[in-house]
Amino acid sequence: TSSGSDPFTVTATVIKECQVTAGAASNINLGAVPSTATNVAGNNNISVSCTNTTPYYIGLSPNSTASTTGAGTMSGTISGNTDKVPYQLYSNAGLSTAWGNTATSTSVGNGVAGTGTGSAQLIPVYGKAPSANYTPDSYSDTVSVNVNY
Prior knowledge:
Blueprint: E1 18-21, E2 38-50, E3 55-62, E4 71-76, E5 84-90, E6 112-115, E7 120-131, E8 139-140, E9 143-148
Antiparallel strand pairs: 1-2, 2-7, 3-6, 3-9, 4-5, 4-8, 5-7
């Protein structure tokens, strides 16, 4: 009897990938407030999962204005109400750093930077409306979350 050997190689390529989870669980509710309220603020989290060691940059864009500075306007639900409630998105609890949408795959811009761990990471988002002196109604706007990597 005789035998022989011929080795082979097992290979895999891990690619960079990021997934964002926002939706209803991430909504920022500024609450029911009187028309005299000012600087009404709230916060919530978005979840980002990126491949381990993958750098990422998150931008936020209010759909009402497509603003790159994170400034948007909420519209009411009552027919004929033309009021628009302005708000600003922030990346810090002190509401001093506006969170916009100039991030790219290589630069944080006015967004938020992170590094993937392979697991979901909760990223806090803060919002503030400077005034509530508008027609009584329920106001809202949708924000697009852009993860660049």
